[in-house]
Write a structure and sequence with these properties.
The complex is a heterodimer.
Chain A: H1 10-24, H2 30-54, E1 60-69, E2 72-80, H3 82-105, H4 112-131, H5 135-153, H6 160-191, H7 206-214, H8 224-239, H9 248-251, H10 257-266, H11 271-278, H12 280-283, H13 296-315, H14 321-341, H15 345-372, H16 385-388, H17 390-404, H18 411-424, H19 431-455, H20 462-465, H21 472-487, H22 498-504, H23 520-542, H24 553-557, H25 559-566, H26 571-643, H27 650-675
Antiparallel strand pairs in A: 1-2
Chain B: H1 3-24, H2 28-52, H3 60-90
Helix pairs in contact in B: 1-2, 2-3
Classes of the chains: A mainly alpha, B mainly alpha.
Chain lengths: ~675, ~100
Amino acid sequence: MTLTAQHLWLIPALPLLVAAVGAFSRHRGIALAAIFAMAGSFVLSCLALAGALQNPAAHAVFNFAWFDLGTGALRLGFLLDPLTALMCVMVTFVGTLIFTFSLGYMKEDKNFSRFFCFLSFFAAAMLGLLIANSLLLLFICWELVGLASYLLIGFWFHKPSAAAAAKKAFLTTRIGDLGLLLGLLWLSEAGGSLLFFDNGQGVLETATLAALSGQTLACCGLALSTAIGLLIFCGAVGKSGQFPLHVWLPDAMEGPTPVSALIHAATMVAAGVFLVARVYPLMSADAVLAAVPVHALTVVAFIGAITALMGALIACAQNDIKRVLAFSTVSQLGYMMLALGVGSWTAAIFHLLTHAFFKALLFLGAGSVIHAAHHEQDIRQLGGLRTRLKITFATFAVGMMALSGVPFLFSGFWSKEGILHAAHGWHVSHLPLYAALAAVVLTAFYMSRLVAETFFGKPRSHAADHAHENSAVMTVPLVVLAVCAVLLGFLGTPAYPWLQATLAGEAVHADFGHLLEGGGLMFLSIGLVGSGLGLGWRLYGKKLRQTAEAHDPLSTAAPSVMAALANRLGFDELYAATVGHLNDLLASLADKLDRYVIGGLVNFIGLVGLFSGSVNRQFDEDNLNGGFDAASDGIRGTGRVYSKTQTGEAHGYLRVIAVAFIVLVLVLSLSMGGAR
Amino acid sequence: MSSLHLCLLISSALFCIGLTGALARSNTILVLLGIELMLNAANINFIAFWRFGPSPAPASGVIFVLFSIAVAAAEAAVGLALIIAVYRHQKSVRLQDATCLKG
C-alpha cells in the first residue's frame, strides 16, 4: 500500500485537525490527540516513502487550480519524490518523539493544551511546506511556520525577554522573506509559472531553466536565474539562521526546550536548506555559463562557510547550555549550506537528516537537564550530573559524539565526511574547506567543554545537587533518538550510499572499496576531531571547575577574544547601531517634517483664515448681527435637543445602525413581496 | 437548496456573528473584529453572486473582493492605531469608557 501525490495532503491534515480542535478546547487530552496525529502522519509518510521509492527518479505531481484569474488560473500542487518523502518521515518521526517528551516537560504548565495546539499547527505547516509543488504554496507554509515559531518562542510571553525574542525572530526572518517574495514574483513573471514540475512547463524543468539562464540582466551582467536564485536564497538565509541574519536563532532559545528541539534545531531552521535543495536546478542553472560575474551557488557556499566557522567560534564562549547548542545549530546549518554551495545537495540533505536526529537528541537532553535542575541553564551552575541523570548523560554523550563526528560509529561522522569530501572537490576555491575543517576542531572542542562542565565534577549549585532522573515519558524519546543518531549514518556511508543515490534518483551499488574514499582528508578530519576533543578534555576535563564563579581557562588566557565571542562578536550591537539607528533617524526626520514643514503650512493657512475671519467678524458685528441672533437662538435650542442623542457611546450608535438596518430589510422585503 | 443559497446563508450567519460581536463586546479590539467579520460576510456575498450569478464576467468578482480586502486591511490598521491612541490617552480599551465625544 502506498500513498500517491494526490493524497499527500492527508499528511499535514491530521496535525492541522488537532490544532483546529485545540484552538477551541482547553482539554488536556489534546496532547494525546496531537501525539497520535503525528504518529498517524508518520505512518502516512512511510507509505508515501514506499511510493516514492518505487521510482526514485520520477517526480510524481498532482496540480490543481486554486482560483481563476482572468483567462488563466493560479495553480498549486503536491509533489512526491524521495526528498519530500524522506523529509516528511524525519519531521513526523522526530515530531512524535518530541511531542511525547513535551508531555513530561510541560506537565506543570497551565497552558498545556495551548502548547500542543501550537505544536500541531507548526507540524501541519511544516509538512505542508515539504509537500508543496508550487513556490507559492511553499511560501504560504513558510510564513505559517514563521508564525508558529513566533507563537512558540513567545509561549512564555509574560517574560519580557521571551516576548522580545519572539519579535526579533519574526522581524529578522521577515527581512529574508522579503527577498523570497521578490524572487517568487520575479520567477512568476519571468518563468510564467510557480509550479516546480508541470509536464515540462514547471520552473524546475529544462525548458524554463534554459530560458531563465539564457537571459542576462543589463545592469550587472548576472544571469536571470542567478538573480532569482539569490533572492530565493535570501529567504533561506533568514530562516536557516545564516550569516548575516543569524542573530534571531540564539535568542529563540527563550521558548520552551521542546520547541527549540523541534523548530529551532531539527525542522524549521532546516527549511532553508530544504528550499535551496528543492530549487537546486534553478540555483545551478547558471553553472554552464562561464562569463557571469558570480554563480548563485558560489555565494551559497561562502555564506555557509562563514556561518559554519562563526557559529562554532561563538559556541566556544557561551555559558548557557541552550545557547551553546543554538550556535552549534547555526554552525551545522552553515555546513549544510556549504554542501549545497559546492554542488552536493544530497550530502546537504544527508547531513540535514542526521543533524535533525542528533541535535533534537541534544536539545531534549538539555531539556531533561534543565527540567531536572529546576530551570537552571547556566553550565557553570551545573556539574556532577553524570551520576544523577544516568540515562540523560548516556544519550547526551551519544549526541555529542555524533555532533563532533567521532569516526565510523556515529551518523554525524559520515554526513560531515560527505560534506568535507564535496568541499574538497570544489574547483572554485578551497577556502570553504579550510573554514569547515577549522569548524570541525571547534565543534569537538565546545561539545567536550559542554559535557565536561555539565556532567562531570561536583555539583556547583543546590539545584544541580538535588537533580533526579526524569520519568520514562522523557527518557524513552532520548533513547530512541540516540539509537537513531547512531544507525542513521549507515544509510549513507561511501560504501553503500543508499540515501544519496535515492535522492538523486540513481541506482545504488555496494562497494566496500569506497568506504575510505575520503583518503587523506578523512584521516585529517579524524585527527582534527581527536585534537578538538583532546583539547576540550585537557582544558575542562582534567582540571574540573570547582565553583560557579571560577574563571574559564580560556578567558584567563585570552580575555578580550573570549569577551568578544561571549558577546556574539557584537552583531546585536552592530545592528542596533546601524539598522536600529537608521530607523530612529528616519522616524525623527518624519517627525520633524510633520511638525515643521507640514505643520507650518497648516498654521499659515490657519493664520490666513484667522485674518479673513476677523475681517468678517467686524462686518458681522456691525451690520448683520441682530436678525441672526434670533435665528441662531432657535437653532441652538434644536441643537440642544438633538445633542441629547449624541451620547458618545459607540455601542449606542452601533445599536441604532443595527436596528435601522433591520427595519430597512423588513420594509424592503415587505414592499418587494407586495410588488410580486 | 442551491449553492447560492448556501453561500448566502453562510454569509448572513457570519454577518450576524459579527454584528453580535460588535454590539455585545466591550473590548474595542473585539468590536473591530466583529466589524471585520461583517465585512467578510459582504465579501462572501460578492463572490457568491459573481460565481453563481447569471453571467460571471472573468475575474471581476475576485478583483472586487481583493480590493475590498486591501481596503479592509488599511481600515484595520487605522482602527488599531486609533485604539492604541485611545489606550495611551485613558489606559483602557473599553468602548464604554471612550465617551469624550459626547454632545
